Amino acid sequence: xxxxxxxxxxxxxxxxxxxxxxxxxxxxxxxxxxxxxxxxxxxxxxxxxxxxxxxxxxxxxxxxxxxxxxxxxxxxxxxxxxxxxxxxxxxxxxxxxxxxxxxxxxxxxxxxxxxxxxxxxxxxxxxxxxxxxxxxxxxxxxxxxxxxxxxxxxxxxxxxxxxxxxxxxxxxxxxxxxxxxxxxxxxxxxxxxxxxxxxxxxxxxxxxxxxxxxxxxxxxxxxxxxxxxxxxxxxxxxxxxxxxxxxxxxxxxxxxxxxxxxxxxxxxxxxxxxxxxxxxxxxxxxxxxxxxxxxxxxxxxxxxxxxxxxxxxxxxxxxxxxxxxxxxxxxxxxxxxxxxxxxxxxxxxxxxxxxxxxxxxxxxxxxxxxxxxxxxxxxxxxxxxxxxxxxxxxxxxxxx
Length: 400
What we know:
This protein is of the alpha/beta class. The protein is built from 10 helices and 14 strands. It has a 6-stranded mixed β-sheet with strand order 4-3-2-1-5-6, sandwiched between helices. A 4-stranded mixed β-sheet has the order 7-8-9-14. Strands 10-11-12-13 form a 4-stranded antiparallel β-sheet. The protein is elongated and about 75 Å long.
């Protein structure tokens, strides 16, 4: 058990304060990041939280029947109810009953204003309210108004509390342990031994599990290991491990994921086994420059556009502008919080600024098919003095 104490009750208070700003009667929260933020528990099933406004009782988590007792035991919400596709357990009827019990809904009164999380998430684990769920809510709450709460969800979780930062730091320590185990295994491999990508994933996973990680959280294939052509596809941002053998002289990217106390670690590091071709070495050197420029530009008040342009300028100078992916970061926090905000240029995201106590995955995706591919992903805390990279694994490519 961790000795870091997250203020889960304070999380509920933040959500209810935001509800007051929108004049909501209650919220039905379906996003994984909201469910984790309010329960402090891994909830993998299709679930929802009924959250009444202040003074109208406690929140209720609805998850599938078979997981209710574990979630009660391991989570912070003790009011957990099971739902399932059978009479007496239908999702919408359970929610309607909870709203009536809390006094948040009176069928003879005015139609409720219900906060829901709408939108389209790039992650399949996002769980925005679906069309079917919206229709079911409209059936049991006739005339209701569904109010998008998603912007509030994002902003509430954007700036991290000191305890959350401590959890993210611990998760990053665990990914460092995983990368060290991989490096040691590669260094000590018998002559002629070629590891598969899956073996490397297993080596990193075992070391992190021993160190306290509970869950390889990513939806993109657990630990992501890419080598050779699998590391160097254009804009390559997804490399679920395979049984491909890692050959000498080719790019090897090892992207490890940990979870500690519901908070996530995400650390990508790059290797070359044996003799490195001259052209690939030059490519790797430019990648390292890009990493440092990115970190130097993650400071309070700097815009995402300015950060991107500073990094791109280096790639252009070295003749590799077309090999740099335009995304330079994504959000990180607890389970389900793995996209917003994304550091990209343009009118949608470019004007957004780095803020103190945000934690962002600093990311560089740098690929040239036929040559090599590298990836930086490293949780980075924005402080008043600049960026602090939470993992200790260096940016530099390891030549093993």
